Amino acid sequence: MSTELPVLAAVDGSESALDAVRWAAAEAARRRTWLRVVSVHPWPIAGYPDTLVDGRQLLAGLRAQTKDNLNRAVDAAAAEEPDLEIRSEALEGDVVAHLRDASRGAVVLVLGSRGLGGFSGMLLGSTAVALVAHGHCPVVVVRGDHPSLEGRVLVGVDGSDTDDAALAFAFEYAKASGSSVAAVHAWSDVVLEAARAAGYAQLDWEPLARGAAELLTSRLDPWRAKFPEVAVEPLVARARPARLLLDQAVGAALVVVGSRGRGGVAGMLLGSTSQALIRHAPCPVAVVRPRAEQP
After folding, report:
1. What pLDDT is recorded for position 205?
2. What is the 3-state secondary structure (H, E, C) of the chain?
3. Where is pLDDT greater, at 52 or 136?
4. Are residues 169 and 97 in the same domain?
5. CA nearest neighbour of 243 among 216, 269, 277, 210
6. What is the CATH number of the domain that holds 6?
């Protein structure tokens, strides 16, 4: 039995969760570790008339459904990676609290992008936002019709203190999977754009473009030296970060971005770029926080 930290997959019985657990199984095999599959159901809501449903019956039904969800997920993971060690666990209570605690003992937490009934609020809504912002490990939201480990790794570089964590994850993933890295830096200047729109057409964008290219080069150089076997494609563009990353994500195996998740309002601190990616990207998205910010 492996003592390495596992890949953690959260499932809820949805088809999206099965896609996530398959991706998680392949990721666990790639990392040469094991897979932990967890399903959490809340406590039954009180207040039902006794003539309709008994609390004990409702709890028994939730437990039975959770067990069935886990069995389906384990079967899907085993079909993907027959030799993988897989352990499953049913938990009761607050979903975010349980998964956040479980993430403390995982190398990565994997979630589906759509919950039961097709509503992107079961696993993706406040639950995923809270886990991405406040979890103890990187979080991958598995998106796309046919998510795969094949293809280039796209990483967003914004010049902040989250860059190194995102670049480390991207380069390590690319090395292990034999992929290349496409490093993207989007730049814009709202003040100059407003001035140009007002008729100042002679504004010179070149210093900003040159500074953006130099920033990306300086961020990439240490990782190119550390991972010389990984091919790197830098891309600098005057664009909004979310739009550029979404455009470039077509055909990618994974998009990696950093996140600053400290504080109390997870949805605001997650940031518009990360929010847009985990809701709209055509492929899986990894959101990585700097180690110093992980609780």
Report:
1. 66
2. CCCCCCEEEECCCCHHHHHHHHHHHHHHHHHCCCEEEEEEECCCCCCCCCCCCCHHHHHHHHHHHHHHHHHHHHHHHHHHCCCCCEEEEEEECCHHHHHHHHHCCCCEEEEECCCHHHCCCCCCCHHHHHHHHHCCCCEEEECCCCCCCCCCEEEECCCCCCHHHHHHHHHHHHHHHCCCEEEEEEECCHHHHHHHHCCCCCCCCHHHHHHHHHHHHHHHHHHHHHCCCCCEEEEEEECCHHHHHHHHCCCCCEEEEECCCCCCCHHHHCCHHHHHHHHHCCCCEEEECCHHHCC
3. 136
4. no
5. 277
6. 3.40.50.620
pTM of the shown model: 0.84
Strand partners, 168: none
pLDDT in tens, 52-108: 556 677 778 778 888 999 999 999 999 999 999 999 999 988 888 999 999 999 999
Specify whether 44 is located in the same domain as 170: no
pLDDT of residue 271: 66
d(CA 145, CA 169): 23
- 142 alpha carbon, distance to own chain's centre: 7
Residue 126 has pLDDT above 80, yes or no: no
Looking at the structure, do residues 49 and 149 belong to the same domain, yes or no? no
Q: Same structural domain for residues 129 and 169?
A: no
Residue 115 belongs to domain spanning:
1-142
**Average pLDDT, rounded, for the chain:** 82
Per the structure, how many domains does the chain have? 2
Question: Cα separation of 36 and 153, whole Å?
Answer: 25
C-beta neighbour count of 203 within 10 angstroms: 12
